Amino acid sequence: MKKALVLYHSLYGNTKAVATSLARGIKEIGIETDCLSIDEVDIQQIPSYDFVAIGSPTHMIRPSKDMKEFLQRLKSLDLRGLTGFAFDTRNHSRMNNRSWLMLENSAARSIEGEMRKMKIKILTPRESAIVEGREGPLDMGVDDRFTEIGRELGRLLASQILPQKFNE
Ligand SMILES: Cc1cc2nc3c(=O)[nH]c(=O)nc-3n(C[C@H](O)[C@H](O)[C@H](O)COP(=O)(O)O)c2cc1C
Fold this sequence. Notes:
Layout: E1 3-8, H1 14-28, E2 32-37, E3 51-59, E4 62-63, H2 65-74, E5 83-90, H3 107-117, E6 121-122, E7 127-130, H4 142-159
Parallel strand pairs: 1-2, 1-3, 3-5, 5-6, 5-7
Antiparallel strand pairs: 3-4
Helix pairs in contact: 1-4
The protein binds flavin mononucleotide.
Flavin mononucleotide is lined by residues 10-15, 57-61, 89-91, 93, 105, 131, 134, 136.
């Protein structure tokens, strides 16, 4: 039986809410799913999962400091057999409408890059949820959208389809 893990860091609760929606969708497909903050997870257990989703608030166009430190710690593990997905919360920004490549306002972009370096296969491209200001609330429809993304990830995980174009 496949096992999925959704990991998040959250200051004001918005990224936690998105992680919860994502985990709900994956569970609906019948996959055993844990949803944990990076402060409570035992990192030695991570290699025992088939799939890991990692989400962070966007701080200064990158993941939060806690998430950056956590990603460094993950590098001590061998996660080559896992599949994954990156997500973030952020404010609406004009930067996301431009092709500033290295300056994209998205924690998920960095997280996805780090996951690739760890040889985690990205199941489906990163996604962002928009929040208002620093504390939220989340945009309307985020809960439904991330639950659906979770279902899609769950289906891919269940069928083991790995889209090669995101992993070349
Ligand atoms: C110190 C700090 C820096 C932030 N920098 C950015 C930023 O560069 N781009 C952005 O879109 N939002 C930025 N934000 C807004 C956060 O993305 C927002 O607070 C977060 O998505 C809320 O998620 P949380 O409730 O899980 O903490 C920043 C917030 C804080 C507290």
